[in-house]
């Protein structure tokens, strides 16, 4: 019986760590948030915090997964996946620390197959591209998307624009990330119905 309670407490503590770490990174920034900051905020030592995660990098990946859960649970007002991506990108401007984390891990560390974030990003890109491709195929069937475009290529380009705009935005926050994502979608929709 005590074991079951201990297990539940461990799960609750891990959830608390993720929630607090997500908030800290979002507000303080990725580079300015240390394991010590997170440990202090949840009343643990650094070693105690790492009892819940295999490494600092495992914690960062868990934070990104938690961010994705929040984004997926949000009720975005979007008629299709491309518009949803633009809404998420627009929201990202409100959490610069998480954008920093995403860019730093995806563009550098996670390209190494041995890094804990590698599988997370590979799976994330595959599933996002797959969902966007399916949505674009439906849009083509409905006449809302140009028929001469390859839906999977368009999905890849839109993801590349989204990620690239996040990098540019970190250098210059006056850049409107979502506007550029929406531009690519508008170009793909241009003349969708004029081929009669």
Polypeptide structure, described:
There is one protein chain. The chain is an all-alpha fold and 196 residues long. It has a single domain (2-189), classed as Tetracycline Repressor, domain 2. The chain is built from nine helices and no strands. The radius of gyration is 19 Å and the shape is elongated. The mean pLDDT is 88.
List keywords for this structure.
mainly alpha; 196 residues; 9 helices; Tetracycline Repressor, domain 2; single chain; elongated
Which range best describes the helical content: under 10%, 10-25%, 25-40%, 40-55%, 55-70% or over 70%? over 70%
H-E order:
HHHHHHHHH
Segments where pLDDT lies below 50 for 5+ residues?
none
Radius of gyration: 19 Å
Helical stretch count? 9
Number of strands: 0
Compute the number of structural domains.
Answer: 1
How far apart the termini lie comes to 71 Å
Biggest sheet: strands, sense, closure?
Answer: none
- Assign the CATH architecture: Orthogonal Bundle
Structural class of the secondary elements? mainly alpha
Strand proportion, as a percent range, falls in under 5%
Kindly report the name of the CATH homologous superfamily: Tetracycline Repressor, domain 2
In CATH, the topology is named Tetracycline Repressor, domain 2
The shape is elongated
Organism: Curtobacterium aetherium
Protein name: TetR/AcrR family transcriptional regulator
Summarize the structure.
The protein has 196 residues and is mainly alpha-helical. It has helices at residues 2-28, 35-41, 46-49, 56-73, 81-92, 96-107, 118-141, 151-171, 177-189.
């Amino acid at each position: 019986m005590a074991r079951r309670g201990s297990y539940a407490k461990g799960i609750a503590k891990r959830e608390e760590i993720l929630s607090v770490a997500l908030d800290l990174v979002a507000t303080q920034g990725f580079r300015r948030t240390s394991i010590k900051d997170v440990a202090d905020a949840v009343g643990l030592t650094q070693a105690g915090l790492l009892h819940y995660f295999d490494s600092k990098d495992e914690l960062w990946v868990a934070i990104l997964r938690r961010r994705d859960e929040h984004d997926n649970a949000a009720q975005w007002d979007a008629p299709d996946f491309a518009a949803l991506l633009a809404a998420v990108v627009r929201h990202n401007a409100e959490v610069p620390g998480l954008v920093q984390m995403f860019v730093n891990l995806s563009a550098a560390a996670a390209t190494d197959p041995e890094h804990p974030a590698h599988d997370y990003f590979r799976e994330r890109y595959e599933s996002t591209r797959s969902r966007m491709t399916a949505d674009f195929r439906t849009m083509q069937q409905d006449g809302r998307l140009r028929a001469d475009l390859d839906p999977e290529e368009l999905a890849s380009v839109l993801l590349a624009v989204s990620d690239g705009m996040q990098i540019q935005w970190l250098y210059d926050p006056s850049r409107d990330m979502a506007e550029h994502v929406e531009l690519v979608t508008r170009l793909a929709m241009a003349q969708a119905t004029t081929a009669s």
